[in-house]
């Protein structure tokens, strides 16, 4: 029975024990021992050897003696215990550490997600990675924003389009707020993906070519906003107010699914006209 708040030290201890006990020593090529194993799984000393830490440290962790392992120790334990990605993230959370990125950033959309974007029609929708690269989109959002298919892949980036694409520069009525919110997301992504050279290059390019971006980037805002309103100027229908919602797939937490809807009757009507196929 679970009552009260979580005792993090106890949970960390129990989690490490259960992960250790489920492992088969034969899978690690460990030398046979004369003494029979009294408990299933690996011994503490074997985990310590695999993780490159002391046996005493493993004992104290499993006895919930108030230790807070460093990110390096957590990473070593995760490898030694062969944790799955979700288990690894859980261990980092229990230790109060932030996991390092282990997978390369997504540069393509998984087919089910690409199909979902298409199926959201007639709502304009697109799928982006952590640096705002546009990985999948439907025809409706192209009619609203820009013809992504005609752009080089390196320019299919929502931040670049907002700042440097001629058609998009005056698209947002409150441009500074939109840029500020985009920068807040990019800064958080930059901290989480310090190894991402493409993201670093994007930030450097935007800083060099857009004074507003450079000024707002220097403010170091990190407050994220995944829901709200944007007022836009469309060349065919004039000003309309869009409600946006940003969703994150559970299995792809670095991706963002952006969906637009009209915020009022007039905007819904205008958005429907914008998104209507030319021959409809």
How many domains is the backbone divided into?
2
CATH architecture of the largest domain: 2-Layer Sandwich
Main β-sheet description: 5 strands, antiparallel
* Mean pLDDT score: 89
Indicate the low-confidence ranges by residue numbers: none
SSE order and pairing:
Blueprint: H1 8-21, H2 44-51, H3 55-62, H4 71-80, H5 85-94, H6 111-119, E1 125-128, E2 134-137, H7 139-144, H8 158-164, H9 175-192, H10 197-209, H11 211-217, E3 227-234, E4 238-247, E5 256-262, H12 265-275
Antiparallel strand pairs: 1-2, 1-5, 3-4, 4-5
Protein name: Helix-turn-helix transcriptional regulator
InterPro entries: Cro/C1-type_HTH (IPR001387), Lambda_DNA-bd_dom_sf (IPR010982), MLTR_LBD (IPR041413)
Organism: Amycolatopsis nalaikhensis
What do these coordinates show?
It comes from Amycolatopsis nalaikhensis. It holds the Pfam family HTH_31. This is Helix-turn-helix transcriptional regulator. Residues 34-88 form the HTH cro/C1-type domain. The protein is α+β, with helices and mostly antiparallel strands and 280 residues long. It folds into 2 domains: 8-94, lambda repressor-like DNA-binding domains (434 Repressor (Amino-terminal Domain)); 111-275, Beta-Lactamase, CATH 3.30.450.180. Helix content is 43%, strand content 12%. The protein has helices at residues 8-21, 44-51, 55-62, 71-80, 85-94, 111-119, 139-144, 158-164, 175-192, 197-209, 211-217, 265-275; strands at 125-128, 134-137, 227-234, 238-247, 256-262. Strands 2-1-5-4-3 form a 5-stranded antiparallel sheet. α9 (175-192) packs across α11. The longest helix has 18 residues, at 175-192. The chain is elongated. It starts with 7 loop residues before the first helix and ends in a 5-residue tail after the last helix.
């Amino acid at each position: 029975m679970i009552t009260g708040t979580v005792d993090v030290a106890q949970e960390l201890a129990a989690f490490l024990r259960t992960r250790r006990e489920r492992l088969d020593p034969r899978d690690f090529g460990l030398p046979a021992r004369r003494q029979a194993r009294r408990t299933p799984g690996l011994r503490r000393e074997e985990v310590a050897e695999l993780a490159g830490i002391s046996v005493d440290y493993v004992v104290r962790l499993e006895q919930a003696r108030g230790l807070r392992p460093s990110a390096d120790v957590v990473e070593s334990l995760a490898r030694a215990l062969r944790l799955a990605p979700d288990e690894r993230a859980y261990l980092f959370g229990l230790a109060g550490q932030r996991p390092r990125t282990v997978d390369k950033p997504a540069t393509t959309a998984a087919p089910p997600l690409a199909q979902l974007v298409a199926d959201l029609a007639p709502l304009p929708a697109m799928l982006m990675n952590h640096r705002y690269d546009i990985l999948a989109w439907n025809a409706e959002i192209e009619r609203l924003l820009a013809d992504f298919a005609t752009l080089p892949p390196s320019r299919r980036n929502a931040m670049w389009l907002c700042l440097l694409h001629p058609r998009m520069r005056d698209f947002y009525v409150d441009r500074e707020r939109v840029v500020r919110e985009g920068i807040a997301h990019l800064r958080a992504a930059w901290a989480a993906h310090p190894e991402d050279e493409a993201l670093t290059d994007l930030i450097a390019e935007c800083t060099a070519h857009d004074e507003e971006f450079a000024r707002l980037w220097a403010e170091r805002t990190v407050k994220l906003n995944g829901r709200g309103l944007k007022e836009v100027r469309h060349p065919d229908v004039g000003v309309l107010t869009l409600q946006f919602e940003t969703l994150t797939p559970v299995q792809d937490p670095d991706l963002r699914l952006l969906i637009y809807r009209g915020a009022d009757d007039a905007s819904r009507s205008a958005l429907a006209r914008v998104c209507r196929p030319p021959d409809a």
